[in-house]
Specification:
The complex is a heterodimer of chains A (about 500) and B (about 500).
Chain A lengths: L8 H22 L4 H26 L2 E4 L10 E4 L1 H28 L4 H20 L3 H20 L5 H30 L4 H7 L8 H17 L8 H7 L2 H35 L2 H22 L3 H22 L2 H32 L10 H4 L1 H15 L5 H16 L2 H27 L15 H19 L1 H12 L10
Antiparallel strand pairs in A: 1-2
Helix pairs in contact in A: 1-2, 1-4, 2-3, 2-4, 3-4, 3-10, 3-13, 3-18, 4-5, 4-10, 5-6, 5-10, 6-8, 6-9, 7-10, 8-10, 9-12, 10-12, 10-13, 11-12, 11-17, 12-13, 12-16, 12-17, 13-15, 13-16, 13-18, 15-17, 15-18, 16-17, 16-18
Chain B lengths: L3 E4 L2 H18 L4 H21 L1 H5 L2 E11 L2 E6 L2 H28 L4 H20 L3 H19 L5 H32 L17 H16 L10 H4 L5 H35 L2 H21 L4 H22 L2 H32 L10 H4 L1 H15 L5 H15 L3 H27 L13 H19 L7 H13 L5
Parallel strand pairs in B: 1-2
Antiparallel strand pairs in B: 2-3
The chains are: A mainly alpha (about 500), B mainly alpha (about 500).
Chain lengths: ~500, ~500
Amino acid sequence: MTPFPESDLPIAITMLLLFGAILTIAAGLVRRSFAWPVVLLTLLVVLGDAIAMLLAIVRGGPLRHTLGGWAAPIGIEYVVDALGAFVVVVIAAVSVAVTVYARAAVRAENPDQEVAFLGMMLTLLLGLTGMVLTGDLFNLYVFYEISSLAGYALLAIGDRKAPVAAFRYLILGTTGASFYLLGIGFLYVLTGSLNMADVARLLPTLHNNPALPVAIALVVAGVGLKTALFPLHGWQPDAYTYASSTTTAIIAPIMTKVSAFVLLRLLFFVFGVDLVTRLLPTGSILAWLSAAGIVVTSGMAIAQRDVKRMLAYSSVAQVGYVGLGIGLANPWALTGAVLHILNHATMKCCLFLVAGSVALHARRRTVAEYAGLGRMMPWTFASFTLAAVAMVGLPPTNGFFSKWYLLLGTIRSGSWPLVAVVGASSLLTAVYFFRLLESIYTAPATAKPEAPAGDPEAAMLVPTIALGVAVLVLGLCNSWFVTQVLQPALPAAVRLPGS
Amino acid sequence: MEPIVEPSLRPLIAILASLVAVPLIVASGRRPNLRDTWSVLAALVKAGVVLSMLPDVLAGRMPTCRLWDVSPGIALELRVDALGLVFAIVSSVLWVLTSFYAIGYVRGAGEKKQTRFFASFALSLSSAVGIAFAGNLLTFLIFFEMLTVATYPLVLHKETDAARRGARTYLAYTLPAGIALLIAIAITWSIAGSLEFVPGGFLDRTTASPALLSTLFVLFVVGVGVKAGLIPMHAWLPAAMVAPTPVSALLHAVAVVKAGVFGVLRVTGFVFGPKLMHELSLDACLAWLAGATVVLASLLGLSQDNLKRRLAYSTVGHLAYIVLGAALVNVWSWTGAILHLAFHATMKITLFFCAGAIYVRTHKENVSELAGIGRRMPFTMAAFAIGSLGLAGVPGINGFVSKLGLLTGTVQADQLALLALLLLSGVLNAAYFFPIVHTAFFRRGDGETGFAEASPWMVVPLVVTALFSVVLGLAPDLGVHAWDLAVATASQVTGGALP
């Protein structure tokens, strides 16, 4: 079907993004307005590539590509299964939506940094897709750092306080990366290999080795920091709040979710289900920490006055769902966790796009200032409402279904406090979203003569609405994803019965 | 006799009729006449489609529409059994009348945001019929929660502080209830592996430990009991009376609260079943909770001066009649409960229609202000008298028929104390309704005299519903065969037959 072997599809994504980033900067140097079309075109091709990859995998099984023809485990290998391919499709689709939105937003917010912003965005995506595609632990570290460095730069583009917040993230992020590096150092010493499949094959003989828990702890802490898993989330609220709206809209839905996905990969495919659940308490520690995080950060979200900050805390809480699902490590909980990675990406992206539109267009940032905007920006807030309802987890939106699977998972695990946490967290989320919705739709608007009334231009509005609709569609069609993509890609021990 | 499954798209069309109307209503917001035409048209189509299934159900067929899976192994499934059809007919036929009434009301009272009002109304009706036709618990939950979301803007409609408080109270009760129901359904799926409604129930003692089953029952009762207004979970209903009267009439006397008692019927008759309920003594517990509600609600109603609040407490009491019948699960109590579900609707909607007509014409909301109103609004107050007599259980009006079924049910269940409670409640009903009628007709008003009925848009519907109550009181099986449908369901669920 394709003019080149299907196994080249994964590496093509890395190449496209790498050269796309360079080309963007070059085009931007010639003329600033040339940069944006290059980015959009690159991402559209990447999206096409990712979809082709997903279809090829659903048809013919996982794809493997050895870089430069050097055979694994010595050479670097890309291994992509249906789940990985799907995550890449989500990354590409969300970034296309954000890119369409970005042109107007960046020009209004940070006109001088447009080219740098766009170049860095592609670099960030290069790192994140690489983290998903690679089958090599050290290569994963390289992509981790690429995405982090691009992330620091992107988060520093924003208002006055952004550089400080980004610097704080830089310190913490570098520490996290070092933990990860140290962790795979241990693994390398133990097994003599860095190839994921190879390490997974060698580890069962080493289950009694005391160095193994240390390695796992370091790796989980390193990736957990980038995921902003409670209590490693300290960098995140400031960074999201002060960054430009487009940055938040790309980093919030994608970066922490990709890291969560990588955590799942490492725990279940490299360390193995048996090791992290039965032999060591990694899973339960992760689950209980996440549960605590869900409650604490939901409470923090209620206390926030700035909308972006509220959304940032809510992100930490929602990532807690993912952490909880991964930690419980049973088929239903994992299904919920992975589904929530996808679902939260769509709804949070939509919410941050709206927060951006409001900040730019209506010059409002705080919960109190949002009063009465529902009438002024009807379409924007229709999408916002859909995404907010999904965050609360009401049917038939996608948020309901991730909660459903997660609840089945907690029941299956038999720990009733966790069942209560999942239930209670919906109510806490309802408190801060319905409070906002009530004031958006019923309170009289505060006068802001300098801000024009009405929805923003189509380029900013269409991606927002598209994501709002996606929240509904993904909810109603979740079963296809769960049975066709998710289940075949999970290890047999954590697969749903009958699939 | 097991009904024969008959594939049919009609249940889906019945739901879509009002769902499709939502965007049409929103799009024609600037042209009130066109907009209101959509409402009426949708109501007529919906009622027509629902009624068209009556011959099939009476002939022992079950129109079924199985859509796609929303969770592996659980389909979005609509099917029309006798019980569901009763609820669907009640909501959709009364919606036709309410549509006309609402047009007269919102224009007469000069309500703002009429577009949002009618759109939410249509969405609520889709949810109500979805609840009626849901073939399994997950489908039921999806529509049940949609109903919560769709009615929230209606309670908030007036956007005053009182409306905001009412809406918050409404969410504070219904959202936790939704969570309880979700957890209950997740537990049911985990222990039974099925969510399909089966006449007579699908759980039994072998499914799980008695303690877990009893906990599960409590969760279910909390989940559906809030909407059914069981004391102590009733406080949202008087608070929600702040909504415009058509909302109180159709939603808070028919669709929403009846969705709650319908849920109780589904849980007791189609999930737990009479045998298990009896073995775990759950029937007596629920019946006594309902019995207490019957008396307390009547006592609380006595002290209310606000007419709509007094009606709300009366609703709480009469819903508990139905719950009581549902709990006892014998053929008479179920026949009575299902008939009361339908018959209470025609009587209570009449009373609310009257309250709204009085408000629009005179802006009076309190019982103490109604002296002499009977002479000024003779049709309205005559209809009011009929509704009150019916609710007090006077023979010749349909309330008598359903109450007779319930009374016989308590005798059959050997619960003579509950029989006494029901009889006492009849007296209390008379005590809080007859003073209103007496004041209206026999006390001289201080101010204006002379004929002052509201517009025909409002008076005709309330006269029609009053006539329904009388006709069904004289011939309960006339028209939609309410009697046959109730007896069919009751004997399917309980395995008994009427002598």
